[in-house]
Amino acid sequence: MAILKVSGYIILMAMFLNALFVIFKFQFGSEGKDERGQKILNFAYTAASPIIPIGWLLITLYDDYIKGIDFDLYKWLIWILVVTAFIVQGATIFILKRKW
Question: Does residue 44 contact residue 89 with C-beta atoms inside 8 Å?
Fold first, then answer.
């Protein structure tokens, strides 16, 4: 079970670092500065922005009504939400860059 947990962390961090690379390369490169690039960035922000508030709401509802969550698990879940938001933003940029 511990091997699965460690491999999950490694996969998640690899996806996160890849997404950061895609985001920064696109945003600070020449591609992100034109009208098409701004449209892609705006759509990526729109796709990624609801993840954190909706996830936070679900975590709070679970904590209040189903089972209490200790602080360490809460910190880990918030970390997962932030990482997931970056992964979705990077994946959206990667896909739309080829599609549009």
Answer: yes
- 100 vs 50: CA distance, rounded Å: 23
For residue 100, pLDDT beyond 90:
no
Here the tokens at position 1 are 């079970």
List pLDDT tens digits, range 7-29.
Answer: 988 999 999 999 999 999 999 99
Which of 22, 10, 11, 74 is CA-nearest to residue 48?
A: 22
DSSP labels for the chain? -HHHHHHHHHHHHHHHHHHHHHHHHHHHSSGGGSHHHHHHHHHHHHHHTTHHHHHHHHHHHHHHHT----HHHHHHHHHHHHHHHHHHHHHHHHHHHHH-
pTM of the model: 0.89
20 and 90 Cβ atoms separated by less than 8 Å: yes
Torsion of Cα atoms, 55 then 61 then 64 then 67, to 10°: -80
